[in-house]
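Hi Y.,

Following your request, here is the sequence exactly as I used it, all 275 residues.
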Amino acid sequence: MKVCYVDESGNDKNDPCLVMVGIVVDAYRLNRTREEFKGIFDDIQQQFQESLKELKGAKVIFGRDRWRKVDPETRQRIVSFLCNWVGNRKHHIVLAAIDRERFKQSDRSRFPEVANDPWLACSLHIALQIQKYHQGKKKNKGRTFLFIDENKQGADKLSELLFKPPEWTDPYYGRRKSQARLDQLIDSSFAVKSHHAGLVQVADMYALILRRYAELHEYKRSEEWQGEKSLIDECARTLASRMLPKATRWPERTDAPCCKWYNDIAPKSLRGLGS
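Below is the corresponding structure, written out as tokens. Let me know if you'd prefer a different format.
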């Protein structure tokens, strides 16, 4: 059995792209990871006199709110450490991303269930990647639970999609006639409070890093502080080394309309990451 903790960055309509990240953990390693994160969080708590409820990627990276009192070098070390940490724990990263303008201009008529909701389209893309990757694993012994921050709009709609996936998703992972749809996932998604789930907080930070990578490289946004691009590039390379393969994220050798659509609406800078 596996667990995937998901969060996103760029959910504002004025953001040029929406980026979603899932961290996939084998259940037998989950407890160790949770205990390690608790220790990491306790160490970070030492930077503050008041209680720290949870990590917020934007506050850490940009030095906002109480993080203004923490020197930039310390904040950068925390971010770099957390990007390396999941790799050291041998967990995988699932990446989905949508360019909002390309999404608007694309022909969405074949995909009515997600046609008006970039968040839902991104979430379903996460699920399809997990399905495609894990069904090819010979020693895969269980299905995957999908956990999403309970405050996210559309979580109920995602649960309905996972319970009854639309037929147009079949070609994404080459569903066989005798195969149940999305049989590698538990047929629902589960809401979790982000301050109760450390890996949702880490996913939030990863999603922000990858969104900023796209903004700095593709959308010509400026650095918010000197040296930001260098940190973001370093972290993006680290995260890319743990991503599911490109052929799983954005399959190219296929005539499947849904694959072509996800490829067309993705930020090109993020499509180019990893192998």
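The domain at 2-271 is CATH 3.30.420 (Nucleotidyltransferase; domain 5).

Thanks again,
Q.
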